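Why Intraflagellar transport protein 81 homolog? Reviewers of the renewal asked for a concrete example.
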Amino acid sequence: MGDQIQFIVEKLNQEPFRKNYNLISFDSLESLQLLQLLSDVLGEIDPKHAVDIREEPPEQTAKRMLNLLGILKYKPPGTVSDLSAFRQGLVTGSKAVIHPVLHWLLQRTNELRTRAYLARFLVKLEVPAEFLQDDTVADFNKQYEELMEAFKNLHKEHEQLKISGLSTAEIRRDISAMEEEKDQLAKRVERLKKRVETVQNHQRMLEIARQLRLEKEREESLAQQKQEQKSQLFHAEQRLQRAQVQLKEMQAVVADSKPESLMKKLEEEINFNSYLVTEKIPGEMESKKTSVYFLEKVVAEPAMTQADLTALESELDEINAQMNQLIEKRMITYEPTDSKFSLYRQQASITSRKKEAKAEELQAAKEEMSSLERQMEQKSSQAHELEGSEVLTEDEFKQYVNKLRSKNTFYKKKRQEIAEITAEYGILQRTEELLRQRHEAIQQQLQAIEEKKGISGYSYTQEELERVSAVKSEMDEVKGQTLDNMSEMVKKLNAMVSEKKASLAPVIKELRQLRQNCQELTQERDEKKVQYYSCAAGLETNRSALEQEVKGLLEECAQEESNYRYINCMKRNLEIQLQRAKEEMKAYVSPEPQQRRRAVREQYTRIILEQENLGKKLREKQKVVRESHGSNMKQMKMWQDFQQLMECKRDCFLKQQNQAAIGQVIQEGGKDRLVL
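Here is what the prediction returned.
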C-alpha cells in the first residue's frame, strides 16, 4: 500500500499535474478533494471529464466516473469485489476505492488516453429493436455501423504507417552511400576514358560497342514481345475454345430441348433464387443481426462477477423449469382438434427442413464448381507460362525426374570438390602465414647486417628497382595484348551482329504470320460474339414476357385463394356466433337455475356486483389513508431530520479523528527533532 501511494504521489508531482504533494499531505486529503483529484486525472485522459465536481450533483459525478471507468475496462481489485460497495465507495470518496483507481490510471495514462479517444467513435449506441422496425432509423443505423467500420480501418492504417515509417537518419545514410558510389563510378569512368584514348580508332570501336549494346537490347525486347504475344495467343485460343464449347452447348440445348423444358428449367431456377432471396437469406441475416445485437449488448455491459453468473444460472434454471411445466400443461390440455393438424404440421416442418438442406447443398455445389473452374484456369495459365504451352505427360515427367537426379548427383560431387579445395586453401593459407613470418625474420636479420656494414636500405632500394622494371614490362605486355584484343573483339562483334540479323529474320517473319492469324481469329470471335448476344437477347425477351405472364397468373391465383380462405373464415365465425347465440338463448329460457347460471348474462351480472363491492371497499380504504396522511408525513419528516442529525454527528466525529491523527503525527515529529 505504501509503494502504491508513493507511486501515485510521484506521478501527480510530474507533468501535466504538478500537484507538489508529499505522503502526509496526500494521505490527509478529504473525500471531496480525492474525488476532485480523480476527476482531474480522468480529465487528462478524456478532456470531457475536466469539470469541477462542486458544480455537479454527486449522483451525476459518480455516474460519469463509472461510465468512463467501464469504457476504460477497469476491474475493481479483490478487496472491493462487491460492485455495490465499490460504487458506494466511489460516491463517498473512500480512500480504499480511489487509491487503487488512481494507481491503475497513472500506470497506463497514454494507453488509456488512446482508448478513451477511440471510445468516442467506437462505443455503439444501443437502439431498441422496436425503433429499428422503422426504415429510416434502420438506414441511419446501418450507415452509422459502416462509418464505424471505416474509422476502424483508417485508424489501423494510421498506426501501421506510424510503425513502418523510415527514420531520417537511415535515409541520409542511404543518400550518402549512393553519393559515394556515384563518385566511385565517375572516377572509374574517367580512368577507363583515359585508358581508351591512348588506343587507335577508339571512337569507331566505341560506336561499334554502342551499336552492339543497342542490338542486344533490341533482341531482348523482341524476345519479350514474342513471349507476350505467345501468351496472348494462348489466352485467345483458350477463350475461343471456351466460347466454342459454350456455343456448342447452347446449340445442343436449343436443338434438343423444347420451349416447355426451357420454361421448366427457368421456373426451377427462378423458384430456387426466389426461395434464397425471400426465405433463406433474410432468415440468416435476421439471426446474424440478433446474435450480433446480443453480443454487443454483452460487451457493453460491465464485467460480471461469479455471484452475477450464479444468479443468472439460477434464473435460467427457473425459466427452464417454468417452460417444462407449461409444456406439460399444454400436453395435458391437448385438444383433439389440434391432433388433426399435427400430422400436417410435422410433414410441413420436415419438408421445409429438407428444402433448406437441399438449397444449402445446391449452393455449396455451385460455389465448389466455380472455385474448381477458377483453379483449372489458373493451373492452365501457370503451365503455359512455365516455359511451354503444354502440361508434362507421364513419360516427360519421368525424364524430368531422372534429369533432376543426375543434376543432384553432379551437385553433390562438385560440393565435395569445393570442400576439398576449401581444406587445401586453409592449409595453403597457413603455409603462406608461416612463410611470411620467416620472410619478416630474414628481413630483420638483413637490415641488422646492413646497419653493421653501413649500407642500410640497400636491399629495399634494389627490390623497388626490380619491382618497377617488372611493372613496366607488364604494362608493355598489357598494352600489346589490349590492342590485339580490341581488334579481335571488333571482328567478333561484326560477326555476331550479322549472325543475329540472320537468326532474327525467320522469327520476325513468323511473328508477322502469327499477328495476321491473331487478327483473323479476333474478327471471327467478334462475329460469333455478336451472334451469341443476339440469340441471348431474343431468349431473354421471351423469358421476361413469360415471367410477367406467370407472375400475373400467380398473383391472381393467390388473390383468389385469399378470398376463398377469407370467406371460409367468415362463414366459420358466423356459424360459431350463431351456435353461441342459440346456446345462450337456450340457457336463458331454461327453467333450471343451474343452466341459467351458465348463461353469459348471469355471469356478467355477478361480475358487476363483485366489482361494485370491491369499489366500496377501496373507497373506504382511501378515506382511512387520507385521514392518516398528515400524521404519517409528519413522522416521515421527523425521521429525515433525525437521519440528517446522525450524519452530521458522523462527519464531526470523522473530522475530529483526522485532526487528532494529524496532531499526533506533528507531536511525534517534534519529539524526533528534540531528540536530534
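The chain has a mean pLDDT of 78. This is the kind of structural detail the renewal will allow us to pursue systematically.
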